[in-house]
Protein backbone atom coordinates (compact mmCIF):
# COMPACT_ATOMS: atom_id res chain seq x y z
CA UNK A 1 0.00 0.00 0.00
CA UNK A 2 1.40 3.43 -0.80
CA UNK A 3 0.76 6.86 0.71
CA UNK A 4 -0.34 10.03 -0.96
CA UNK A 5 1.46 12.12 1.67
CA UNK A 6 4.97 13.24 0.69
CA UNK A 7 7.77 13.28 3.25
CA UNK A 8 10.11 16.24 3.07
CA UNK A 9 12.89 17.68 5.21
CA UNK A 10 11.53 20.07 7.85
CA UNK A 11 15.06 20.88 9.03
CA UNK A 12 18.71 19.98 8.62
CA UNK A 13 21.05 18.91 11.41
CA UNK A 14 24.40 20.69 11.75
CA UNK A 15 26.98 18.64 13.61
CA UNK A 16 30.78 18.39 13.99
CA UNK A 17 30.62 14.96 12.30
CA UNK A 18 31.70 15.39 8.68
CA UNK A 19 31.88 11.70 7.76
CA UNK A 20 30.07 8.59 8.98
CA UNK A 21 33.16 6.91 10.45
CA UNK A 22 33.54 8.02 14.07
CA UNK A 23 29.95 9.12 14.67
CA UNK A 24 28.68 7.53 17.90
CA UNK A 25 26.45 4.54 17.25
CA UNK A 26 23.58 5.91 19.33
CA UNK A 27 22.63 9.32 20.78
CA UNK A 28 23.70 10.41 24.25
CA UNK A 29 27.07 8.62 24.10
CA UNK A 30 29.07 11.75 23.19
CA UNK A 31 28.09 15.25 24.31
CA UNK A 32 28.85 16.93 20.98
CA UNK A 33 27.03 20.22 20.40
CA UNK A 34 25.10 20.87 17.21
CA UNK A 35 21.93 22.47 16.00
CA UNK A 36 18.80 21.80 14.01
CA UNK A 37 18.11 24.49 11.42
CA UNK A 38 14.50 24.72 10.22
CA UNK A 39 14.14 24.39 6.45
CA UNK A 40 12.84 27.39 4.51
CA UNK A 41 9.17 26.40 4.33
CA UNK A 42 9.08 25.69 8.10
CA UNK A 43 11.27 28.55 9.24
CA UNK A 44 8.75 30.16 11.60
CA UNK A 45 9.36 30.66 15.30
CA UNK A 46 5.69 29.72 15.75
CA UNK A 47 6.46 26.19 14.52
CA UNK A 48 8.53 25.57 17.68
CA UNK A 49 6.49 27.67 20.11
CA UNK A 50 6.39 25.82 23.47
CA UNK A 51 9.23 23.44 22.62
CA UNK A 52 11.52 25.35 25.02
CA UNK A 53 9.57 23.74 27.90
CA UNK A 54 11.18 20.38 27.11
CA UNK A 55 14.70 19.23 27.95
CA UNK A 56 14.92 16.62 25.18
CA UNK A 57 13.66 16.07 21.64
CA UNK A 58 13.03 13.19 19.31
CA UNK A 59 14.56 13.78 15.90
CA UNK A 60 13.20 11.64 13.08
CA UNK A 61 15.59 11.78 10.19
CA UNK A 62 16.70 10.24 6.95
CA UNK A 63 19.91 8.18 6.63
CA UNK A 64 20.43 10.12 3.44
CA UNK A 65 23.98 8.91 2.80
CA UNK A 66 22.87 5.26 2.71
CA UNK A 67 19.63 5.47 0.73
CA UNK A 68 21.25 4.57 -2.59
CA UNK A 69 22.52 1.28 -1.15
CA UNK A 70 19.00 -0.01 -0.40
CA UNK A 71 18.26 -2.54 2.31
CA UNK A 72 18.29 -6.28 3.05
CA UNK A 73 15.98 -8.47 5.15
CA UNK A 74 18.82 -9.36 7.51
CA UNK A 75 21.83 -7.40 8.74
CA UNK A 76 24.97 -8.20 10.75
CA UNK A 77 24.90 -5.98 13.88
CA UNK A 78 28.33 -4.67 14.98
CA UNK A 79 27.43 -5.74 18.53
CA UNK A 80 27.64 -9.36 17.43
CA UNK A 81 31.06 -8.84 15.87
CA UNK A 82 29.55 -8.69 12.39
CA UNK A 83 29.24 -12.52 12.36
CA UNK A 84 25.57 -13.15 13.12
CA UNK A 85 22.48 -12.11 11.23
CA UNK A 86 19.38 -10.44 12.64
CA UNK A 87 16.24 -9.12 10.96
CA UNK A 88 16.49 -5.51 9.81
CA UNK A 89 13.54 -4.58 12.04
CA UNK A 90 15.30 -6.15 15.05
CA UNK A 91 18.19 -3.70 14.71
CA UNK A 92 19.05 -0.01 14.39
CA UNK A 93 20.68 -0.64 11.01
CA UNK A 94 21.10 2.46 8.85
CA UNK A 95 20.05 0.43 5.76
CA UNK A 96 16.26 0.33 6.08
CA UNK A 97 13.29 0.18 3.69
CA UNK A 98 12.39 3.84 4.28
CA UNK A 99 15.81 4.98 5.53
CA UNK A 100 14.31 6.52 8.69
CA UNK A 101 16.29 6.93 11.92
CA UNK A 102 15.27 8.34 15.28
CA UNK A 103 17.36 9.84 18.08
CA UNK A 104 16.70 11.50 21.42
CA UNK A 105 18.86 14.63 21.87
CA UNK A 106 19.19 17.26 24.59
CA UNK A 107 17.66 20.67 23.82
CA UNK A 108 19.69 23.64 25.11
CA UNK A 109 17.78 26.51 23.59
CA UNK A 110 16.08 28.02 20.58
CA UNK A 111 17.74 30.92 18.78
CA UNK A 112 17.40 32.86 15.57
CA UNK A 113 20.66 32.90 13.63
CA UNK A 114 21.01 34.79 10.35
CA UNK A 115 17.22 34.72 9.95
CA UNK A 116 16.98 30.96 10.58
CA UNK A 117 15.27 29.34 13.55
CA UNK A 118 17.82 27.00 15.17
CA UNK A 119 17.42 24.49 17.97
CA UNK A 120 20.65 24.15 19.95
CA UNK A 121 21.16 20.48 20.79
CA UNK A 122 23.74 17.99 22.03
CA UNK A 123 24.27 14.25 22.08
CA UNK A 124 23.20 13.59 18.49
CA UNK A 125 24.55 10.67 16.44
CA UNK A 126 23.99 12.36 13.08
CA UNK A 127 26.12 13.31 10.14
CA UNK A 128 26.38 17.02 9.36
CA UNK A 129 23.64 17.93 6.86
CA UNK A 130 21.26 15.09 7.82
CA UNK A 131 17.68 15.88 6.71
CA UNK A 132 15.25 15.91 9.66
CA UNK A 133 11.74 14.77 8.72
CA UNK A 134 10.08 15.47 12.08
CA UNK A 135 10.81 16.97 15.51
CA UNK A 136 8.85 16.00 18.63
CA UNK A 137 9.22 16.68 22.34
CA UNK A 138 10.49 13.78 24.46
CA UNK A 139 7.86 12.91 27.06
CA UNK A 140 9.48 11.15 30.04
CA UNK A 141 6.37 9.63 31.59
CA UNK A 142 5.71 7.67 28.44
CA UNK A 143 9.00 7.50 26.52
CA UNK A 144 11.21 6.32 29.42
CA UNK A 145 10.34 2.77 30.37
CA UNK A 146 11.59 1.32 33.65
CA UNK A 147 12.90 -2.22 33.33
CA UNK A 148 12.83 -2.27 29.53
CA UNK A 149 14.81 -5.15 28.00
CA UNK A 150 17.46 -4.13 25.47
CA UNK A 151 18.21 -7.39 23.63
CA UNK A 152 21.77 -7.44 22.26
CA UNK A 153 22.13 -3.74 23.18
CA UNK A 154 21.23 -3.86 26.89
CA UNK A 155 24.43 -2.07 27.99
CA UNK A 156 26.28 0.94 26.58
CA UNK A 157 29.44 -0.10 24.71
CA UNK A 158 32.68 -0.34 26.72
CA UNK A 159 35.01 2.64 26.44
CA UNK A 160 38.71 2.59 25.61
CA UNK A 161 41.43 4.95 26.86
CA UNK A 162 42.54 7.85 24.67
CA UNK A 163 45.99 9.46 24.74
CA UNK A 164 47.40 12.43 22.82
CA UNK A 165 50.91 12.86 21.41
CA UNK A 166 52.60 16.12 22.43
CA UNK A 167 52.08 17.39 18.88
CA UNK A 168 48.37 16.51 18.90
CA UNK A 169 47.90 18.19 22.30
CA UNK A 170 49.50 21.43 21.08
CA UNK A 171 47.42 21.38 17.88
CA UNK A 172 44.22 20.63 19.83
CA UNK A 173 44.87 23.57 22.18
CA UNK A 174 45.41 25.85 19.15
CA UNK A 175 42.26 24.74 17.30
CA UNK A 176 40.19 24.95 20.52
CA UNK A 177 40.78 28.71 20.59
CA UNK A 178 38.45 29.06 17.60
CA UNK A 179 34.89 30.12 18.25
CA UNK A 180 33.32 27.17 16.43
CA UNK A 181 35.32 24.32 18.02
CA UNK A 182 35.89 25.17 21.72
CA UNK A 183 35.09 21.61 22.83
CA UNK A 184 37.61 19.94 20.54
CA UNK A 185 39.63 18.01 23.14
CA UNK A 186 36.69 16.48 25.05
CA UNK A 187 35.02 15.76 21.71
CA UNK A 188 38.04 13.87 20.31
CA UNK A 189 38.40 11.96 23.60
CA UNK A 190 34.72 10.99 23.71
CA UNK A 191 34.54 10.00 20.02
CA UNK A 192 37.65 7.81 20.11
CA UNK A 193 36.72 6.31 23.51
CA UNK A 194 33.84 4.65 21.64
CA UNK A 195 36.40 2.79 19.47
CA UNK A 196 34.89 3.62 16.07
CA UNK A 197 36.69 0.78 14.31
CA UNK A 198 34.49 -1.82 12.59
CA UNK A 199 33.27 -4.64 14.81
CA UNK A 200 35.49 -7.21 13.09
CA UNK A 201 38.61 -5.09 13.78
CA UNK A 202 39.00 -4.74 17.50
CA UNK A 203 42.65 -5.79 17.99
CA UNK A 204 44.50 -4.04 20.83
CA UNK A 205 47.49 -3.60 18.51
CA UNK A 206 46.51 -2.36 15.09
CA UNK A 207 49.08 -0.93 12.64
CA UNK A 208 46.45 0.91 10.59
CA UNK A 209 46.39 4.70 10.65
CA UNK A 210 42.78 5.83 11.20
CA UNK A 211 41.21 9.20 10.57
CA UNK A 212 38.01 10.81 11.83
CA UNK A 213 36.67 14.12 10.51
CA UNK A 214 35.48 16.52 13.24
CA UNK A 215 34.59 20.12 12.44
CA UNK A 216 37.01 21.10 9.66
CA UNK A 217 39.81 18.85 10.90
CA UNK A 218 41.06 15.36 10.15
CA UNK A 219 42.17 13.65 13.34
CA UNK A 220 44.75 10.90 12.75
CA UNK A 221 45.04 8.14 15.33
CA UNK A 222 45.99 4.51 15.82
CA UNK A 223 45.51 1.72 18.37
CA UNK A 224 48.44 0.87 20.60
CA UNK A 225 48.37 -1.18 23.82
CA UNK A 226 44.58 -1.16 23.66
CA UNK A 227 44.50 2.66 23.73
CA UNK A 228 43.61 5.13 21.00
CA UNK A 229 46.68 7.30 20.39
CA UNK A 230 45.90 10.67 18.80
CA UNK A 231 48.86 11.52 16.57
CA UNK A 232 48.06 14.60 14.53
CA UNK A 233 45.34 17.09 13.53
CA UNK A 234 45.29 18.29 9.93
CA UNK A 235 42.94 20.78 8.24
CA UNK A 236 40.40 18.50 6.51
CA UNK A 237 39.10 18.21 2.99
CA UNK A 238 35.45 17.67 4.04
CA UNK A 239 33.67 20.95 4.74
CA UNK A 240 30.24 21.60 6.30
CA UNK A 241 27.31 20.75 4.05
N1 LIG B 1 19.75 6.60 16.76
C1 LIG B 1 19.43 6.34 15.38
C2 LIG B 1 18.49 5.17 15.25
O1 LIG B 1 18.55 4.26 16.09
O2 LIG B 1 17.70 5.16 14.33
C3 LIG B 1 20.68 6.12 14.55
C4 LIG B 1 21.47 4.90 14.91
S1 LIG B 1 22.62 4.53 13.65
C5 LIG B 1 23.25 2.98 14.17
C6 LIG B 1 23.90 5.69 13.99
C7 LIG B 1 24.87 5.72 12.86
O3 LIG B 1 24.23 6.22 11.70
C8 LIG B 1 26.03 6.67 13.07
O4 LIG B 1 27.06 6.05 13.80
C9 LIG B 1 26.46 6.99 11.64
O5 LIG B 1 27.43 6.06 11.18
C10 LIG B 1 25.18 6.76 10.82
N2 LIG B 1 24.60 7.99 10.28
C11 LIG B 1 24.33 9.15 10.94
N3 LIG B 1 23.76 10.04 10.12
C12 LIG B 1 23.66 9.43 8.90
C13 LIG B 1 23.15 9.84 7.65
N4 LIG B 1 22.63 11.05 7.47
N5 LIG B 1 23.21 8.96 6.61
C14 LIG B 1 23.73 7.73 6.79
N6 LIG B 1 24.23 7.27 7.96
C15 LIG B 1 24.20 8.12 9.00
TrEMBL record:
Classification via SUPFAM superfamilies: YaeB-like
Superkingdom of the organism of origin: Bacteria
Protein name: tRNA (N6-threonylcarbamoyladenosine(37)-N6)-methyltransferase TrmO
Organism whose genome encodes this protein: Shewanella corallii
Homology family: Belongs to the tRNA methyltransferase O family.
One Pfam family of this chain: TrmO_C
Domain TsaA-like, chain residue ranges per copy: 7-147
Keyword annotations from UniProtKB, A to Z: S-adenosyl-L-methionine
Presence of keyword Cell membrane: no
Amino acid sequence: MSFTSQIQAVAYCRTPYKQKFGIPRQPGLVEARGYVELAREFNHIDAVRGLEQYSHLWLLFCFHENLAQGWKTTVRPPRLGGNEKMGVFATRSTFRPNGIGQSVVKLHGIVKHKGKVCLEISGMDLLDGTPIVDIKPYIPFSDAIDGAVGGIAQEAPELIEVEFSQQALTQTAKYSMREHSPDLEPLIRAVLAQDPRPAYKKAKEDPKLYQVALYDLDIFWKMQDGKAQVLELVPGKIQSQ
